[in-house]
Amino acid sequence: MKFLLYGGLVLLLVPVQTTLLPHVAVWGIKPDLGLVVAAVVGLVAGELEGLLVGLAIGWVLNLYSAGDLWLSLVTTAGAGLFAGLLGRQVAQVTPTILAIGLLFLSMAGGLVAVLSMKNSTLSDTWWMVQSVVVPQACFDAVLGAGLLWVLGQRFMLQRLGTFDPYS
Amino acid sequence: MRSPYGARRLALGLFAFLLAALFLFPGQSQGLLEYLDGPVGQLVRLPLEAVSSLDQGISNMWQQYVALQSVEDENHRLRQEIEWLRGQNNQLREAASATQRLTALLQFKEQALPTMIAAQVIGRDASNRYKSVIVNKGDSDGIQKDMGVITPSGVVGRVVKTTGATSVVLLVTDPNNAIAGLIQRTRDEGIVEGTLQGRAKLKYIPMLSAVKEGDYVVTSGLVGGFPRGLAIGTITGISREEGALFQTAELAPEVDVNHVEEVLIIQAPHGQSVDAATKPDGTGRSQP
């Protein structure tokens, strides 16, 4: 059952990320829904499921991007894994905590991607950081916090235990 | 039930294994996943095309019924443009017939027309770092990597990735793209690359070239999946640095790649069969 749920989620992510999200892009920047979903799965279902779902999302989304496969796999799977580990270490995971975590994860992934770009000068790298990496990280953080808040309203998130939207 | 420490160890171990495999054996590990690209691509095709056609329908409805405020002005402007183009068309027809006569006189071999396949844009790059579009034709339609992609107005980009049912087209405005270009007036060659700001530039123009703003840049047809003479863009600025060996020109792309909806994929740039064009033995197209 869980496998089907995750499979459906991964399949649905592709059209949402490639077809619908460009319409809500701000200054040409759209959030990385794959990274956000992998992090939320890691947080809710644990680091192992976060890692595996992140791997699947990274691989499938990379089929629809001109980017390198290794980067997509490492950043998305890493987001699932680290969110899972964060869920165990932090006493109370609120949307704000997730937003801060996602901000750093997205920035780290973006920086790795920018630094691995070929033939880019220092000014190109700086331009990419301030025009793409930072705005996208902010976007991801807001989206992740919103998603966790909605999930918290609808379901009892057992694994997190301490997250109570009414408190 | 697995203990949380066991799951953590397993997850960390898997992640370490993945990192090691990707960095130590990049070709093999990515090649392994590429075997699965085709079936997964076919599976993703259904929701992707469903959402894309829904999106297209809503967009069409908006354009045809709601956003009609500026239609009268646009209609007037387009009528004027048609008149101007008709005049230009007559002149070009004259020039073409003269060229035909001279070609026959000099016994030049006529250039064969390229073989093309039409495709629809169904999405944009999944990440923000690359400028690419997703089209609804893939491996099963005979699309392969490095094929050129155009619209009737000019060059859009080239295919960089394919699945069974879709392909990713890297746009001419992406900095990772490189297309052989030619300044139409001076016949100087260079390489067209995208810029981070979403425009394009022509690099490696000889210092002695008399290139100027407003010059047209077309494909040179020497390498890559494009025949000669397809419009790439217009030069909007030239930079000549002191001591440099070459000039660089800024280009305004001929095609508005951010709003392109239908494209043509060039399967054989010089009219030869697709098989011949894609043979790896060097008898077909060159690989960049």
Structural class of chain B: alpha+beta
Please provide the ordered H/E string of secondary-structure elements of chain B.
Answer: HHHEEEEEEEEEEEEH
Separation, N- and C-terminal Cα atoms of chain A: 32 Å
Number of strands of chain B: 12
Biggest interface pair, counts: A-B, 56 and 48 residues
Mean pLDDT of chain B: 80
Indicate the overall shape of chain A. Answer: globular
Number of helices of chain B: 4
Oligomer: heterodimer
State the end-to-end CA separation of chain B: 54 Å
Compute the CA-based radius of gyration of chain B: 23 Å
Q: What is the general shape of chain B?
A: globular
SS strand fraction of chain A: under 5%
Question: SSE layout and pairings?
Answer:
The complex is a heterodimer of chains A (167) and B (288).
Chain A lengths: L1 H19 L12 H13 L1 H16 L6 H21 L5 H21 L6 H33 L13
Chain B lengths: L3 H21 L1 H41 L4 H36 L8 E10 L7 E4 L12 E4 L2 E9 L4 E5 L6 E6 L5 E6 L5 E7 L9 E4 L11 E9 L6 E8 L8 E7 L5 H4 L11
Antiparallel strand pairs in B: 1-2, 1-12, 2-5, 3-4, 3-12, 4-5, 6-7, 6-9, 7-8, 8-11, 9-10, 10-11
Descriptive report:
The complex is a heterodimer of chains A (167) and B (288). Chain A has helices at residues 2-20, 33-45, 47-62, 69-89, 95-115, 122-154. By secondary structure, chain A is an all-alpha fold. The longest helix of chain A has 33 residues, at 122-154. The N and C termini of chain A lie far apart (32 Å). With 288 residues, chain B is α+β, with helices and mostly antiparallel strands. Chain B folds into 3 domains: 4-65, no CATH class; 69-106; 113-288, Thrombin, subunit H (Beta Barrel). Chain B is 35% helix and 27% strand. Chain B has 4 helices and 12 strands; from the N terminus they run αααββββββββββββα. In chain B, the strands form 2 sheets. Chain B has a 6-stranded antiparallel barrel. In chain B, strands 6-7-8-11-10-9 form a 6-stranded antiparallel β-barrel. Classes of the chains: A mainly alpha (167), B alpha+beta (288). At the A-B interface, helix 1, helix 3, helix 4, helix 5 and helix 6 of A face helix 1, helix 2 and strand 1 of B.
